[in-house]
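TICKET: design request
STATUS: open
ATTACHED STRUCTURE:
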């Protein structure tokens, strides 16, 4: 399976940093947060991060514009329907994560990979809420400035 579209749940520092990494790598990114101000702040942070890459000569202005153009801010999980990979970067609460992944499993294709960026909860505990727990992975990012 080729991954083309990535969904990220949570537009805080971690979620926006993950989004920027994938945008720079050429992926389409759908960034979800229920808080509109968090989405706006994430958009501004990503734009600033891309501009810094251009200033440092790591990307051209055209490349940063193309990367920013692949970012879609969304407010509903239903928009993840065609994503190939979804990464959550939300509050470290097992019940909240389980509920999110149960909801996502009903929306996305059977091939979509579901990933948690948790740093403290067992992936197996989150996956236990799924009908197909084998599609769940743990993935962790350490976001640092480029």
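STATUS: resolved
RESOLUTION: sequence designed for all positions
ATTACHED SEQUENCE:
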């Amino acid at each position: 399976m080729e991954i083309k579209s990535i969904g990220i749940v949570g537009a805080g520092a971690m979620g926006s940093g993950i989004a920027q990494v994938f945008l720079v790598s050429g992926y389409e990114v759908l960034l979800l947060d229920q808080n509109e101000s968090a989405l706006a702040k994430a958009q501004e942070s990503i734009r600033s991060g891309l501009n810094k890459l251009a200033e440092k000569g790591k990307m051209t202005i055209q490349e940063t514009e193309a990367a920013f153009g692949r970012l879609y801010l969304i407010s509903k999980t239903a928009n993840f329907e065609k994503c190939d990979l979804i990464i959550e970067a939300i509050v470290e609460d097992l019940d909240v994560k389980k509920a999110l992944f149960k909801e996502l499993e009903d929306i996305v294709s059977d091939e979509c990979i579901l990933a948690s960026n948790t740093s403290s909860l067992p992936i197996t505990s989150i996956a236990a809420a799924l009908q197909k727990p084998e599609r769940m992975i743990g993935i962790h990012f350490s976001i640092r400035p480029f």
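CLOSING REMARK: Strands lie at 5-9, 28-32, 71-74, 85-88, 113-116, 136-138. The domain at 5-138 is CATH 3.40.50.720 (Rossmann fold).
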